[in-house]
Amino acid sequence: MQVTSNIIDVALPDGGQGDVKDFVGLLKPRVMSLVVFTAIVGLLAAPGTIHPWMGFMAILCIAVGAGASGALNMWYDADIDAIMKRTASRPVPAGKITPHEALGFGIVLSVASVLLLGLFTNIAAAALLAFTIFFYAVVYTMWLKRATPQNIVIGGAAGAFPPMVAWAAVTGSFDLGSFSLFLLIFMWTPPHFWALALFKEIDYGKAGVPMLPNVAGRPATKNQILWYTIGLFPTIALPLVTGVAGWIYAAGATALTLKFLFDAIVLYRAEGTASENKAAGKLFGFSILWLFALFAFILVEKLLGLPAVGNWF
Amino acid sequence: MANPVQPFSPEDLARRRRRSVALAVILVVMVALFFITTIVRLGSTVGERAL
Prior knowledge:
The complex is a heterodimer of chains A (313) and B (51).
Chain A: H1 2-11, H2 20-26, H3 29-45, H4 52-76, H5 78-81, H6 99-120, H7 123-144, H8 151-160, H9 162-171, H10 176-199, H11 201-207, H12 212-215, H13 218-241, H14 247-269, H15 273-304
Helix pairs in contact in A: 3-4, 3-9, 3-15, 4-6, 4-7, 4-9, 6-7, 7-8, 7-9, 8-10, 9-10, 10-13, 10-15, 13-14, 14-15
Chain B: H1 10-42
């Protein structure tokens, strides 16, 4: 009888318990929506033409590649995700999907998205997508995230590449115009995530992730947020002088970045954890709107066929 | 004799069925995407090419 019991124990399934929605959750759909949106803008802003169907396929490949890197991130970070409230319900720490399933899912989607983007568009776009997945899954997730408080400064590049990938899908190259879109996201990432890290400081501390507030303290974090926000002003000017954006963007980006700066100053001047968390939460929420709006301004200009301010290069 | 243990509960089987249906849908969609992409890349004049 004992033998029978052991056989049944061995036969019990290890994996294969996840629902469809759990696998969708591995793709980080909310992050993917930002990737898709910025990639669409990169595709439309690029000088050149692409067949609409091939453009759609390029965006699909970029979205799948972004989802794949999310799955690889969840595979590797399952231990710290289980500790933090914000991430404890993700499919792997919740026990709905095994780490091996997440790893396999991520690898298959990574390879498929890169190969198909190369087949459908060009090698430059596929190579950059491959580098983006590698940068997010290996450089950021496996190396920087647990090693340095500058993790999201450097790792932010991974989230900034998608419009460059889409641009390369059209032109087959990388140039200053696509770099200006990259910089918008790259410079936005530190104040966005450090605001989150301020009001999730305890969570990050429990998980042992060296976010800036946990390592350098809250005053230093507020200071860094303010400086990076000031740095957004020259950054928003770049799409104007590289022939990417027009006057709608110029007016909208200036107004919204002034509001960003105002919120950063309010946070800088806030005293006491409660008021700091409140100001950080407000800045975090506004930063999401800021990024969507800036790319939406460029999208509207391209859809209306409005001219760019100029190209100085 | 002990009661046989079922390795899969009805909920497990329902999840497995939903995964199978999702995979089938994805495969059909992929076939359609590849077919349309092939036609687009070949171009409208493919029927007029020299054999």
